[in-house]
Amino acid sequence: MTQYLTGFGLGMRRPHYRSYIDGTAPVDFIEVISENFMIAGGKPLDTLLKARSNYSLALHGVSMSIGSADGLSDAYLIELRRLVDIMQPAVVSDHLCWTRIDQFNSHDLLPLPYTEEALDVVCRNIDLAQETLGRRMLLENPSSYIAFPGAMMEWEFLAEMTRRTGCGLLLDVNNIHVSAVNHGFLAADYLAGIPMGSVGQIHLAGHVQGEHLLIDTHDQPVPPQVWALYRTAMTLAGPVPTMIERDDNIPELAELCDELEVARGISAEAAGERIAA
Predict the structure, then answer these.
(1) Is 3 domain-assigned?
(2) What is Dmax (Cα atoms) for the chain?
(3) What phi, psi does 166 have (nearest 5°)?
(4) DSSP assignment, residue 141?
(5) Along the 277 residues of the chain, how does pLDDT read in single tens digits?
(6) What is the CA radius of gyration of the chain?
């Protein structure tokens, strides 16, 4: 049975599997990387089924390659649809990027030029994915390290993408901060430019300072700048399901849950600010 995504969640990572299987993790939902479970059976799928019985589920993909000019992989979509049918997740999402050309998968979230031509490709691929999966998808804004001359701003691209396809947005607040610092735009302009009514989920994460750019690493606690931006986003968007991503340097579950409590507090304060306004 499909469950709606509400509240505050975490990415389900291997060190904490037992707590999710037991249902003792104090979270409202879990998110997993889709590709890790796109298999016919076995222990990984059994583990997810047991965790799924306790929590609402979000499937988050990294290899759909929604920006591929040569289209989406039929085999990939079939496998993902099978997983969706088994798990009945509340959310299916992927990234606004490309990862594949011909049969080669880079296993990296490669950047798109935000041009009209790229927008046509992305929208065509989203339409196919949503039709095949039989549901609306969420697309995540990426961290950006290069810019393309003559392209529209990312938030303009996202707004038109959602308008044309009816897809939703997975708003990664950390990625907005990273891209804003790297490219010199205002994160506030980004938030003002996207259709907040299309935001179906929010990600929070950490990053590190590289030699010249901020690098989205998902291996650090959420920093103060990202918390501040999250407060603004929640004030604008309302109560959107929020989760913390930690993909490396994974701490004890209790530490992540403490971070999640910060998100709960900020969300509550943002709700109070909306009422006062």
Answers:
(1) no
(2) 54
(3) 75, 5
(4) P
(5) 345 799 999 999 999 999 999 999 999 999 999 999 998 878 999 999 999 999 999 999 999 999 999 999 999 999 999 999 999 999 999 999 988 777 667 567 878 999 999 999 999 999 999 999 999 999 999 999 988 888 899 999 999 999 999 999 999 999 999 999 999 999 999 999 999 999 999 999 999 999 999 999 999 999 999 999 999 999 999 899 999 999 999 999 999 999 999 999 999 999 888 777 6
(6) 18
Name the amino acid, one letter, at 55: Y
Domain range for 175 = 8-276
Residue recorded with tokens 């065509």: 124
The contacts of residue 239 (CB under 8 Å, 6+ apart) are: 267, 271
Nearest CA to 220 among 242, 230, 205? 205
pTM exceeds cut of 0.85: yes
- Count the alpha carbons within 13 Å of 142 in the hemisphere toward its beta carbon: 24
CA distance 32 to 49: 12
**Is 1 domain-assigned?**
no
Residue 104 pairs with which residues in a beta bridge? 101
The C-alpha torsion from 231 through 236 and 238 to 239, rounded to 10°, is -30
Torsions phi, psi of 131, nearest 5?
-65, -45
Please count the structural domains in the chain: 1
